Amino acid sequence: MKKPVTVIERDGEPYLVVPANSGPLPADFTLVRTKVSIEPLNETFILDFTKRSPETDEICLRFLRFEIQKPLRNNFRLWQPKSGYPFYERNPKETFRSIQLFSGFQIRPVITNDGNIGLCLDVTSCFVSATPLPTVLDYDTFSREWKGKHCIYHFGDQWYEIKLHALDNRNVSEYPLCLESGQSVKLLNYIHDQASKPISSELANLAENAAVVFYLNPRNEERAAAAPLCYPLVDLSEVQRQHRLAIFPPSQRYRSTLHFADQYLQNLRFGNIPIKVASKPLEVTTRYFCIPDLEFGNRQKLSVRGSPNVCHVKLVDAGKMRLKLLHDPNTGFFIKTPLDRQYLILPRSIHDSMGVQFLKDLKSTLQDLFPQPSSYSPKVVNYNDYGAKSFVRQTHAIIEAVKAAGTQPGYGIVMLHHVSDRASRQEDQLEAAVVRKLYDEFDLRVGIIHCDMIKGCYREVIEDDGRRRYRSDPTRMKSLRGYLRNVAINKVLLINRKWPYVLAERLHADITIGIDVKNNTCGLLAVGQYGADIRPELKESRQKEQLKSEQIKKYIYDLLYEEAQGSPEPLKTIVIHRDGICWPSELQGAQQAILALRKKGILPPDATLTVLQIAKSSPAPLRLYHIDKKNGQSRIENAQVGNAYFISDTEAYLCSTGQPFLRQGTARPLHIKKVSGPLPLADCIEDLYALTVLATWSQPEGCARYPITQKLNDRYLRDAATNYDNDALDFTDYTDDEEEAA
C-alpha cells in the first residue's frame, strides 16, 4: 500500500491499523497456506502524539518510522538497499582491491525511559564490489558464478539490493518491457527514461549488447536489470583484513553518529510537520550489576565484589585471573572427571606432514589446562583428502575412514578443508553433515576445526641429520598458542562437558530455559541454579520459527518433569530466555505446561513462569557510552560491563560487553523485554548477566554478549539444524577424475 500499516491486539483479536486516507482495502489477503479476511470497522481516531497510551505507542512508532524514511530516501546523497534497511552515503568511504566500503546509518524511533520518543541512530558499513557484472554473460558462467548472488543495482540514481535469479538470452536493447499503459519499451530505453537527468556516466556508457538478468521484487514478481549496472555485495569472509575498517572504537562511532545526525536528521518531517531533533544524544542513568563470584576446581572461588574468604581481584584483572586459575594445578577446572574415549580425525595431507607436531602441541596444551593421570591420547584416524575439496567428497572420505578404523562411541576433533563448492553467504553444510553423521552412525560427538591455521603456523625444517621435521613458525607462536588453547577448551573440554567454572552464588531463578528455533529444529537448554547442571535437548518441528502452543507445552512439560525429578529442591521460579521473538502461541503453551505440572504436583502450587525475549540484532542498535570528563576535556569510552539502562518495568538494555574486557569496537548492549511473569526485571537482568559471565568459558579472559542459554543453544543448533544436501551424499556418483575436473 506504500502507507504506514501495523497490527495491534484487542482482547486477543488482531486489528489492522491504516491511515484514514489509504483508500479501499482488499476484502481478503493471501498469506502462507491460508487467506485472511479484512473486515472494515467504522472507527476512525486521531493519532495524538501528545496523548499516548501503550496501545497507541506502537502505532505512533510505526507511523513515525514510515514518515522519517521519506526525506532520507529523497536525499540524493544517500541510498538504501531495501525498505527498513540502513541508509548509506553515495560516495564510498574507502576503496581497496576493487572493493568499496560504504558508511551509513540505521535509524529507528523508540520510547525512552522518560516516556518521550527518541531516534535511535547507529553507524554501520557495507562492502560492495567496485566492479560490476560483465557486460556479456553466458548461461554456464551465470549459473556457476552469479546465480543467487546479492548485488546493488544502479537503476539511475536509485540504488537498491537485488538477488540474481536468472539470465535472459536477449540484451538490453532487445528485451521488451510492458508498461501499465499497455505500451512496450525496450529495457535500455526504459532505464534511460526513468533516470534523473543528467544521467550518470555508467548509464551513458551502457552497452547496447549488455546482458539482462532477472531478480524477484518484494511481491515475488520477476523484474529485469542490466547486468553492468549490478555491483555484487562482498561477503565479510572475503575482506577479513579490511573488516577492521568497519569496526569503530567508541570515540569514532560517537563522532560519526553526531555527524550523521547533523547532516541528515535536521530536515525530517512528519507529513507537513517538521521534526526537531536534539543536537546532543540523550544522557541516561544506568544501574550497575557486579560480576558474580565464580567457583573453580578444589572449591576455589574468585570475587570482584569483595566477598569474604575468597580470592579477590579487581574488575580490570578479572579475565586474566580466570585464565590463571584454570592453569593453576591447585585450582583448575570445576569439573575434573577423566576424559572419555577420544579421537583425532585428520586429512591425510596433514597427518603425513605436520600432524605429529600438531598432536604433540595439542597434548601439551591440554595437559597444562586439564592435567590427568593418563594424558590426552586420542586415537588418530586419517582420511583421504586428495582431489577436489568438495562437500560430498570430504564427507564420504571421513565416514569411510571412521568406519574402517572400527571407531567406538566417544568424542573427537575433525579437521576439515574449506569446501570448494560452498556458496557465498551460505552456511557450512560440510560441517553440519560430518557432525550429524558421526553422531547418528557412530555415536561420536565431535568438534570441527579447519586446516588453514595449522598450515600457516607450522613450517618444514630439514634438521642437521638430514631428516625432515615440522616445527612451529617462530613468527606465529603467539597465534598458535592462542589457537591451541581455544581448540583444547572449545573442541575437547566443553564438548566433553568439562565446565571451567560455575557460579558461586545461586541465581534468582531455580531453573532457566533457553529456547531457539532454526530450520525446523527447536533447541532447549536448561541451566540450573549455579550453572553447573546443563541439559540440552533438540526437538524436530514443522515450524521454522514460530512454535505452536501444543508443541511448546509438550517440550516444556517434558523438560521440567525430568528436571523436577532430579532436583533436590522444588522448582518454584522458572525463567525462559526466548532467542528472538516470543510468539503469543509459545507464551500460551509454556503457561499451560506450568499449570499442568502444578496440577499433577510435579511443581509446587506457587511455581511461577517469567518469560524474557532477547534480541540478537536490531534495526538500529542502541549504544551506551561513558563520557569521562577531566580538565575540561571529554573522553568517549565504552560503558562498563554490567551497566543496564531500564526503559520500563518490562524493557531494558544490558552491557554484557564493554570496559575493561572489550579490546576493539564499540559495545552493543543486549535488548531484553519481559513478556510475562512476576520475577522483577532487575532480578531477571542480574541472572542474565551472570549467565553471560558463564558464556566466557570459551574465552575466559574476555566477555560474552549472550548468556550461556543462548550461546550453547546456538552451538548445538548450528550443527544439528544446518541444512545439508543429503541426496548429494547418498546418490552422487563420482570418480577421482571427475572430482579433479570439478
Count of β-strands: 39
Query: First CA to last CA: what distance?
Result: 48 Å
Q: Give the overall shape, derived from the CA principal axes.
A: globular
What does the largest sheet look like?
Answer: 9 strands, mixed
What does it look like?
The chain is α+β, with helices and mostly antiparallel strands and 742 residues long. Among the domains are: 139-238, paz domain (Beta Complex), CATH 2.170.260.10; 342-498, Rossmann fold, CATH 3.40.50; 504-721, Ribonuclease H-like superfamily/Ribonuclease H (Nucleotidyltransferase, domain 5, 2-Layer Sandwich). The protein is built from 18 helices and 39 strands. The strands form eleven sheets. Strands 19-37-38-39-34-33-30-31-32 form a nine-stranded mixed beta sheet, sandwiched between helices. The protein is globular and about 85 Å long. Residues 731-742 have low confidence and may be disordered.
Which features would summarize this protein structure in a list?
alpha+beta; paz domain; Nucleotidyltransferase, domain 5; 9-stranded mixed beta sheet; Rossmann fold; single chain; 742 residues; globular; 5-stranded antiparallel beta sheet; 18 helices
In short:
The protein has 742 residues and is α+β, with helices and mostly antiparallel strands. The chain is built from 18 helices and 39 strands.
What topology emerges from the helices and strands here?
Elements: E1 6-10, E2 13-17, E3 28-31, E4 34-37, H1 54-73, E5 78-79, E6 87-89, E7 94-96, E8 99-111, E9 117-129, H2 139-146, E10 150-155, E11 158-171, E12 176-178, E13 184-186, H3 187-194, H4 201-204, E14 211-216, E15 222-226, E16 230-232, H5 250-264, E17 269-270, E18 273-274, E19 287-288, E20 294-295, E21 301-303, E22 311-312, H6 318-327, E23 342-347, H7 348-351, H8 355-369, E24 379-383, H9 391-404, E25 410-416, H10 429-442, E26 444-450, H11 451-457, E27 458-462, E28 468-472, H12 477-493, E29 502-503, E30 511-518, E31 521-527, E32 534-540, H13 549-566, E33 573-579, H14 584-599, E34 608-615, E35 625-630, E36 633-638, E37 643-646, E38 651-654, E39 670-676, H15 681-694, H16 708-721, H17 726-731, H18 736-741
Parallel strand pairs: 21-22, 23-24, 23-25, 25-26, 30-33, 33-34
Antiparallel strand pairs: 1-2, 3-4, 5-6, 6-8, 7-8, 8-9, 10-11, 10-16, 11-14, 12-13, 14-15, 17-18, 19-37, 20-21, 20-29, 27-28, 30-31, 31-32, 34-39, 35-36, 37-38, 38-39
Helix pairs in contact: 8-12, 9-10, 10-16, 13-14
